[in-house]
From TrEMBL:
PANTHER family per UniProt: ALDEHYDE DEHYDROGENASE-RELATED (PTHR11699)
InterPro entries: Ald_DH/histidinol_DH, Ald_DH_C, Ald_DH_CS_CYS, Ald_DH_CS_GLU, Ald_DH_N, Aldehyde_DH_dom
Coiled coil stretches, renumbered: none
Signal peptide: none
Organism: Glossina pallidipes (Tsetse fly)
Pfam family, one: Aldedh
Transmembrane segments: none
Keywords per UniProt: Oxidoreductase
Protein name in UniProt: Aldehyde dehydrogenase domain-containing protein
GO molecular function annotation: oxidoreductase activity, acting on the aldehyde or oxo group of donors, NAD or NADP as acceptor
Protein family according to the UniProt entry: Belongs to the aldehyde dehydrogenase family.
Residues in Aldehyde dehydrogenase domain copies: 21-482
Residues annotated as the enzyme's active site: 259
């Protein structure tokens, strides 16, 4: 059994100006364990009044002569590294809270903590490395550019990778010197509140980091439309992303970065090792219970190896253990809540109704919690709902294809463009596909290789802007141009 599997949540209030405080309304809401459907605890429910307080604290912390603004870059580095050290100290507590709140297996939650630490460490190294330029403009003018933090930023994160998405958002914002108002998903607020406590312990000045727990239509909307928030970063669904953009446009034209949905194609050519391809495709889809925006949810297999691949993919899915996420042998926990549970089952019904062949799974597991059997469909065609819409659950759809040109067209024939993969020993085929597919990330002979150093984001309805890597800094920076006239001195 994993260490500290049932850590009690210590923090349930809003975190504003380095203090845990109740919401203005004194309302609370339940956060529920999706494996048991039991209430873990009750958390303060923030809304517009609380967002106003948090933004005011962040704005004050960003004032020109504030302790945060007067810090040197390497002092920011030290604070971020200290935060990483505290995360490592509390690794098992953070992982336990994540598993209770989200339902992901505890071993995966531990990996998420490690990756979150790596992400913050990566950005801790960027505090003194984003630079302007000297621009040659003419004989009697000198022009330089400066990169400056945008100011107060709002960050709204999803429930599928709660701690990891926090690290993706906090890392670049803190590295460049912004101040933050974060709203975690209402389903998974506990790790964000624990991280707020660690940020205070690390020594971040008051107001630099604020966490407002609550719901999207209230707290999330208040962040998106607040006139003193200069940039909002959102990860979530396409419909909500549109609302964020609309609110940003109607308020102060704040800049927006969006990481939205996906319907990513993983293409397997006939020269691939079938066993290897089955394993890659299995993890590409079933990892995190299928609740991943870049999941390889369209598995395209060449007709020459199609039947063999389907047979082995079904066997692999049937062997996947589902159950208590604190059991070290379990690979798949529950879906996040009843809404997602019901949605996934409705997609499975749709697949059957539209003529796809249900090879395995498709039903609920047990009577408690939101568990769904690992599900595999074959004979899927591109016009089916399960081929076009994001399922966000443990449902693998397997398609058949014949040629490179055909599969490029079919891979691009969806409204999303977040990620794609290809498995082949033919370098030319791999690069032809990689250069032609509409996707922000393309993986060759691997999948989901998302690293702190590598930009991540999507084409089309999958969003705008990039997170991670050097590109992730640009979301939080303004460019200022300074030009000075040089007067020629003449001797007397």
């Amino acid at each position: 059994m994993a260490k500290n599997p049932t850590a009690e949540p210590k923090y349930t209030l809003l975190f504003i100006n380095n203090e845990f405080v109740p919401s203005v309304s004194n309302k609370k809401f339940a956060t529920v364990n999706p494996a048991t459907n039991n209430v873990i605890t009750y958390v303060a429910e923030g809304d517009k009044a609380d967002v106003d307080k948090a933004v005011a604290a962040a704005k004050k912390a960003f004032q020109r002569n504030s302790p945060w603004r007067k810090m040197s870059p390497l002092q920011r580095t030290d604070l971020m590294i200290k935060l990483c050290e505290l995360m490592a100290r509390d690794k098992h507590t953070l992982a336990s809270l994540e598993t209770q709140d989200n339902g992901k297996p505890y071993t995966e939650a531990c990996l998420d903590v490690d990756y979150s630490i790596d992400t913050l460490k990566y950005y801790a190294g960027w505090t003194d490395k984003f630079c302007g330029d000297t621009v040659p403009v003419g004989y009697d003018l000198v022009t330089i550019t400066r990169k400056e933090p945008v100011g107060v930023v709002g960050q709204i994160i999803p429930w599928n990778y709660p701690l990891l998405m926090l690290a993706w958002k906090w890392g670049p914002a803190l590295a460049v010197g912004c101040t933050i108002v974060l709203k975690p998903a209402e389903q998974t607020p506990l790790t964000a509140l624990h991280m707020a406590a660690l940020a205070k312990e690390a020594g971040f000045p008051a107001g630099v980091i604020n966490v407002v727990t609550g719901f999207g239509p209230t707290a999330g909307a208040a962040i998106s439309e607040h006139p003193d928030v200069q940039k909002v970063a959102f990860t979530g669904s396409v419909p909500v992303g549109r609302l964020v953009m609309e609110a940003a446009a109607k308020s102060n034209l704040k800049r927006v970065s969006l990481e939205l949905g996906g319907k990513s194609p993983l293409v397997i050519f006939d020269d691939a090792d079938v066993d290897f391809a089955v394993n890659v495709a299995h993890e590409a889809l079933f990892s995190n219970h299928g609740q991943s925006c870049c999941a390889g949810s369209r598995t395209y297999v060449h007709e020459k190896i199609y039947d063999e691949f389907v047979s082995k993919a079904v066997a692999k899915a049937k062997s996947r253990t589902v159950g208590d996420p604190f059991d070290d042998k379990v690979l798949q926990g529950p879906q996040i809540d009843n809404d997602m549970f019901t949605q996934v089952l409705s997609y499975i019904d749709s697949g059957k109704e539209e003529g796809a062949k249900l090879q395995c799974g498709g039903k609920r597991v047990g009577e408690k919690g939101f568990f769904i059997e690992p599900t595999v469909f074959s004979d899927v065609t591109d016009n089916m709902r399960i081929a076009q819409e994001e399922i966000f659950g443990p449902v693998q759809s397997i398609f058949k294809f014949s040629t490179v040109e055909e599969i490029i067209e079919r891979a691009n024939n969806v409204k999303y463009g977040l990620a794609a993969g290809v498995i082949t020993n033919d370098l030319n085929k791999a690069m032809q596909y990689a250069q032609s597919v509409d996707a922000g990330s393309v993986w060759i002979n691997c999948y989901d290789a998302v690293l702190p150093q590598t930009p991540f984001g999507g084409y089309k309805n999958s969003g705008m802007g990039r997170e991670l890597g050097k590109d992730g800094l640009e979301n939080y920076l303004e460019t200022k141009t300074i030009t000075m006239k040089v007067f020629n001195q003449t001797s007397d």
